[in-house]
Amino acid sequence: ISVDEVRRIREQEAFACAEVIGAEGKMFGFGDNPLRMTPERLERLAQEIADFQPDLLLTHWKDELTYPTHWLTADSTVRAAQMAQCKWNLRFFEPNIGTAARVGFVPDHYVDISEVFERKLEALRTLAAQPHLVSLYTTCNRWRGIESGCKYAEGFVRFVPTPPLLNLLAG
To answer: Do the beta carbons of residue 80 and residue 38 sit within 8 Å?
Structure first.
């Protein structure tokens, strides 16, 4: 099918998923694979962050080299948040399931999702073009639950920029 048809299907699925979890969805139509983040698009993302003033930003793992669009999304999110010049708390979520060890993703905190896990599965089922995600996330979230002492959990890494002074001392 055409790239435009894939985009249309993915958008419909994303909005259906957001509805299941009670979130508001918004699409900018930037495309995927390849994702092109022009200065204008970065400005638009920064303006959205500045206008919305989120307490928390979630994005792909910063070193997810297995899927270039995910890496670029993470980089663009960090840059746009910095450009927005507002208070923000950024967390990276689990990379492509099964690749965490290869790309250096080690959670520094967990969120117990046991009470909402069935709703997560319901939301994942709306992503009909990716039916494998249900079993992959079930396994991953169970594993993260074992690591953190609950039934199901998600692991995250906090974004902590390296202070410039440390860079000088390391060199």
So the answer is: no
